[in-house]
Design a protein that fits this description.
Helix content is 75%, strand content 0%. It is built from 4 helices and no strands.
Length: 109
């Protein structure tokens, strides 16, 4: 069950990375410039997704913070689908937090 919860958290952080990167690419192709927050958001979400896969507690907490920030931005005037996505991403990332307890090392003596 642990690998599934960790994979869900990682996927919940990877989807926004791909979406922001695609939005930056589309904006550049259509208008010739990139929105100022698309590239940093894509890099940030990609970084926390990769580090979450490596079982980093800091990455999961950072991912939760990023999800909360983007949830707060869409709550004011965002479409319901985005609000639902950020709530799900926040929940999936938060549910992996208990997996990040330090594991005791076993010695083979």
């Amino acid at each position: 069950m642990e690998p599934i919860r960790l994979a869900l958290a990682q996927a919940a952080l990877l989807v926004p990375a791909v979406a922001f990167a695609a939005n930056a690419f589309i904006s550049y192709r259509e208008r010739g410039f990139v929105e100022p927050y698309d590239v940093p958001a894509a890099v940030g979400f990609l970084l926390v997704a990769v580090l979450a896969w490596r079982r980093s507690l800091v990455a999961l907490v950072g991912g939760i913070a990023l999800c909360a920030i983007y949830l707060a931005t869409v709550l004011t005037a965002g479409p319901a689908a985005f609000i639902a996505f950020w709530i799900v991403a926040l929940a999936l990332t938060a549910q992996a937090l208990p997996l990040m307890r330090p594991r005791s090392r076993t010695s083979s003596t």
